[in-house]
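Note to self: keep these together.
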Amino acid sequence: MASPDMMKPLLRNSVEVEQALSELKCPTVGILGSGDFARSLATRLVSSGFRVVVGSRNPKRSASLFPPGAEVATQQEAAGQADVVFVAVFREHYSTLCDLKEALAGKVLVDVSNDTEPSLRLQSNAEHLGSLFPECTVVKGFNVISAWALQSGPRDGNRQVLICSDSREAKSSVSHLARSMGFIPVDMGPLSSAKEIESIPLRLFPSWKTPVLCSLGLFCFFYGYNFIRGVIHPFVTKGQNSFYKIPVEIVNVSLPCVAYVMLSLVYVPGILAAFLQLRHGTKYRRFPGWLDRWLQQRKQIGLLSFLSAALHAVYSLCLPMRKSARYHLLNDAFKQVKAGQESAWVEEEVWRMEIYLSFGILALAVLSLLAVTSLPSVGNSLNWREFSFIQSNLGYTALLIATLHTLTFGWKKAFNPAQYKFYLPPTYALALVVPCAVLLCRTYLLLPCVNARLTKIRRGWERGRLTRFQLPEEMGHCNVNSAQEDVSNV
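Structure:
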């Protein structure tokens, strides 16, 4: 049976709790500044078990803004008590901290500042801070973390904290703080890397720029092409006013072409990479820079394809609501009555439209699945085989279904001379070029002889490399003069 001493609680009151925490020798963290980021940082540090001292120019006014566990004092007091000090003020206010040089001497300063716009200054904020406080060790970090991510926790924001400094010990201390707060520190090297780190929050969707421009370029091309065929041609040849089609109908005809071509562009870089590997006979040769960037932007291209497809579905549902559609329906009914025609049913057209709509719905459904699994919260729950199956196999399935959707829409139009307005082919015929080329190349890569060679290359096989193969039982009496085998025959 346990002794009476063992039955007593380990910590009986708050005094003993504070004593126990002090025995763990957790560093006291100081924060110079009382803005939004400083408040969020203090909240996260307190919840992580650190003693926090906030230095403010007006402690009485700022005390109510910080969590109860944080001590709000003057800047001089905070600098004197803290082991690690976060400088949460803008660069132009660094000079106001010069009176704290003596109190901050020998301590670690963590610069969390960012510029409000790209700067041409040669010296980063962290390096400028280090020049003002030469007796301190400056660490750049936490500037890529938003106040919201600090306040709500790392699960709701980016978990990586980029850190750089010329002192290994200082980086180790700040990395420990980041891990204790639930973040993942990433060592970016010396303090000279601070300028690169400070430029990261100023970038406006860097990975989206090229895909968005590509999507807009395709839309402008197809919109202009459809405008010439659907509006200008009837106006020039028949004097017919079709300018009412500009806001909805021309847009709706252009969006599926953009979605279709953008979806095929997701898989073009993979096809090109496979052919390059087959040509070079190795996977260890770097791809061209443009191809490497294209491979990295496939997710953004796919999401923009899904956006265009979703907009096309919405526009298509709105087509019958237009007044012009109702007037055309009434005119067709009047012509049918005037001609004495009892039924306008065309069996072939009915089946074509049913199949066309069915393929369109299936293509949008598969594309929606691809878009959902590209989200980090969903993709992280899948293993690599599941993710690869969805993004690759189902992706090509979506492209094939979209191709069938486009072909059933065109049907016999490509063989009708009346469809070549101004000698321009139908829009869907142009949209088919890149996707059909992708599907044909993919079919070629799936041929057993080609696929086997490509699989060997991706498993490390290299053309022209010689390797000696040896069975385990032959290890003791191998022939030294045995010839080397060419792994290309394996």
